[in-house]
Amino acid sequence: MSETIIRELGGYIPDKTCTITLDKIKQFVNVPYFIEWYKSGESCKVFPLFLQELSDLNPVAPALFGLITRNPFFDHTMIKYFIAENDQKPVGRITAFIDYNYSEDKKKTGWVGLFECIKDRKTANMLFDSAVEYLRQNSCQKVIGPAKFNAGGEIGLLIKGFENMPYFMEPYNAPYYQEFFEGYGFEKENDWYSVSTDELLSSDYMNRIASMNEKFKNNRRNEAFNSFTVRNIDFSNVKKEIGVIRELYNPIWNEGTHPQQVYMTEAEFDALALGIKEISIEDLIFIVEKDSHPVAVSVNLPDINEVINEYDSIRKNFVPKNSFRAIPDIIRDLKIFLRIKRRIKEKKFSRTRFLILGIHKEYRKNGIDTMLYSLIKKKALEFGITHGSASQMADINMDIINPIFKLGKIALTWRAYKLDI
User: Fold this and answer.
1) β-strands 409-420, 387-394: how paired?
2) pLDDT tens-digit profile of 400-410?
């Protein structure tokens, strides 16, 4: 085996320098296709759409007539992309970045993310060395991760549940990565969970909820419960609705029970919401109001990983090209996207991801959560959805963990790591 080298693909500093291109980002995106474990029978890896991944990682201008967009996250983030190569073949990757909007009380903190590596500790250490040195040179004293790019996206390293296929936007990696992180000196910061549920697992708790809700409805003294109204999102007025959800999201998710969370700018939230809209069903998104004022939100998405997995499973030898303009890769994405849109129109999915469920602090413990659980289940079953995943939930967020754990069982566990440098 020839010598492994670490190559800087490029980087970006807002309003200063840009040495990254979309072709280089495409090389970075392609690396997981060269990790042998993902080709094994043990793996449940679902590869993302290239166009979406390129958009998420893109600090430069949009391209391909808007099919690739620019991520406004980079308005306040500097980043460097590293790739490991052996004999001109990719064998690993990592990003190192500093989000100017993220702060901890005592130490300047940088992040690592999107780590992939062949089963070789030396290669892993070389990648960590490169990322850590970049952050150290930029005055960071602490590293956290892995993440894409914080708790508002995909957070943590999968450490348990490798036998379960991840839902859309749930991180999935090879099991030996944990040894690499901990062997390098990374320590646990906190854990994140997904809870898998189905009609059987949730039936006892949901029956108790139904009984409790009936008592609330028929109890005149419980004006708090009966004064809330629930409606579905209105896609015909999408800009206004995005604003409603954004005004709920930032205050709720930036409380102390959501570690690694960063306040989302208006541009970031709008970009995320418009992307999610394309794979959403109106009937699975709920807004709770009191006196016409929004106080809670629940966003549940059909699991598009079903469609991606079905398409890719019959094309197992697919190898992506290094150009972001590569026609076979674009065709793969467009064919999958058309299948997703058709399934959304027909409302034919078997799985849903409970992506967002948040209640304004003032209105918690009023039965809103149980009311939403009932509505989600009712609508899901109407569409033939039989399985769901609630994720990602921080281990310190007891307000959501306590009820959700009664609906099912832990399927995936991710760990956010820290390293003092």
Assistant:
1) unpaired
2) 888 888 889 99
